[in-house]
């Protein structure tokens, strides 16, 4: 089915309801309906669509893989946009929805999207996820940016969300050029190994950056986080050009395995400044004004 320049507002059920799937929606509007704004039973392509203020459902519900470009979904009862595996979101905005802003299955991508003030999380992929240039702020009931497996996060902002700012599951994930501030949980958390570059991580309610296994940290600034600044469970990790201050409920750096530290500065931690396992090298590092050991 194909829908172009269609408006469906203030209806007693869904605005647009499509049982066929594999459909396209171009410049459609579905506002203030009792059910979902737009629903399709299979794959769908959506461009320049608006679905706001739908009273008992989602803004857009795509029961298959969805491709969404420049769509706006605000103040819906449940999620802004909900789609299955293999979905992509480009330049979409989702704000003030009762559930998640943008939700998809695994192998999904988010580029240049904004999710603000939603009652659940901001942007979520249940499996692998790629996020670039996204902003997720003030989502009170969940993560800012989340994927259930391996994730890549480039140039994103995640702030003042109810849980972790950026979260990825098992696998090798990358977080690069992101600002993560004032989230209710940890700043950044990955289930296994990670590459972390050029990050600002401040004022979060848990550990600044947490990784399960061997990871690389470069050019990161962390301050005033309520757990440790950086925590790595095991393996061999590398820390270069790192500044950490005022970790209020943990160590500046906890490294459970071996490590290499170059140009690392830690101060004001409630516990040890730097804790690391055996066979570690430190060059041009400083650790001061901490509540426990310096190093």
Query: Mind telling me the C-alpha Rg?
Result: 21 Å
Main sheet characteristics: 22 strands, parallel
Number of helical segments with 4 or more residues: 0
Total DSSP E strands = 35
- Low-confidence segments: none
Mean of all residue-level pLDDT scores: 97
Structural class designation: mainly beta
Oligomerization state of this entry? single chain
Shape: elongated
Percent in helix = under 10%
Beta-strand residue fraction: over 45%
- N- to C-terminal separation? 65 Å
Descriptive account of the structure:
This protein is mainly beta and 295 residues long. The protein contains no helices and 35 strands. The N and C termini lie far apart (65 Å).
Quick take:
The chain has 295 residues and is mainly β. 0% of the residues lie in helices and 45% in strands.
List the helices and strands and how they pair.
Blueprint: E1 2-4, E2 16-18, E3 23-26, E4 38-40, E5 44-47, E6 60-62, E7 66-69, E8 72-74, E9 81-82, E10 88-90, E11 93-95, E12 102-104, E13 108-111, E14 114-116, E15 123-125, E16 129-132, E17 135-137, E18 145-147, E19 151-154, E20 157-159, E21 166-168, E22 172-176, E23 179-181, E24 188-190, E25 193-197, E26 200-202, E27 209-211, E28 216-223, E29 230-232, E30 236-245, E31 253-255, E32 258-267, E33 274-276, E34 281-283, E35 286-288
Parallel strand pairs: 1-3, 2-4, 3-5, 4-6, 5-7, 6-9, 7-10, 8-11, 9-12, 10-13, 11-14, 12-15, 13-16, 14-17, 15-18, 16-19, 17-20, 18-21, 19-22, 20-23, 21-24, 22-25, 23-26, 24-27, 25-28, 26-28, 27-29, 28-30, 29-31, 30-32, 31-33, 32-34, 32-35
């Amino acid at each position: 089915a194909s829908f172009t320049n269609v408006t469906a507002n203030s209806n007693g059920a869904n605005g647009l309801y499509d049982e066929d799937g594999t459909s396209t929606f171009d410049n459609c509007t579905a506002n203030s309906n009792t059910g979902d704004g737009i629903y399709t039973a299979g794959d769908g392509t959506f461009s320049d669509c608006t679905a706001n203020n739908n009273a008992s459902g989602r803004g857009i519900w795509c029961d298959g893989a969805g491709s969404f470009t420049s769509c706006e979904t605000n103040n819906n009862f449940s999620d802004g946009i909900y789609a299955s595996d293999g979905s992509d979101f480009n330049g979409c905005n989702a704000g003030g929805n009762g559930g998640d802003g943008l939700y998809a299955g695994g192998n999904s991508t988010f580029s240049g999207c904004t999710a603000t003030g939603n009652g659940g999380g901001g942007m979520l992929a249940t499996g692998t996820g790629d996020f670039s240039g996204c902003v997720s702020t003030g989502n009170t009931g969940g993560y800012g940016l989340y994927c259930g497996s391996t994730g890549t996060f480039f140039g994103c902002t995640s702030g003042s969300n109810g849980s972790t700012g950026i979260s990825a599951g098992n696998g090798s994930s990358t977080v690069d050029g992101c600002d993560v501030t004032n989230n209710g949980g940890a700043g950044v958390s990955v289930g296994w190994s990670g590459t972390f570059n050029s990050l600002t991580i401040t004022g979060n309610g848990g550990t600044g950056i947490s990784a399960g296994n061997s990871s690389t940290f470069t050019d990161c600034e962390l301050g005033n986080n309520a757990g440790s600044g950086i925590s790595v469970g095991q393996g061999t990790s590398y820390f270069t050009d790192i500044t950490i201050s005022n970790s209020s409920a943990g160590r500046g750096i906890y490294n459970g395995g071996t490590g290499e530290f170059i140009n690392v500065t830690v101060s004001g931690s409630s516990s040890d400044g730097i804790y690391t396992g055996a066979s570690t090298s430190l060059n041009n590092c400083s650790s001061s004004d901490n509540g426990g050991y310096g190093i």
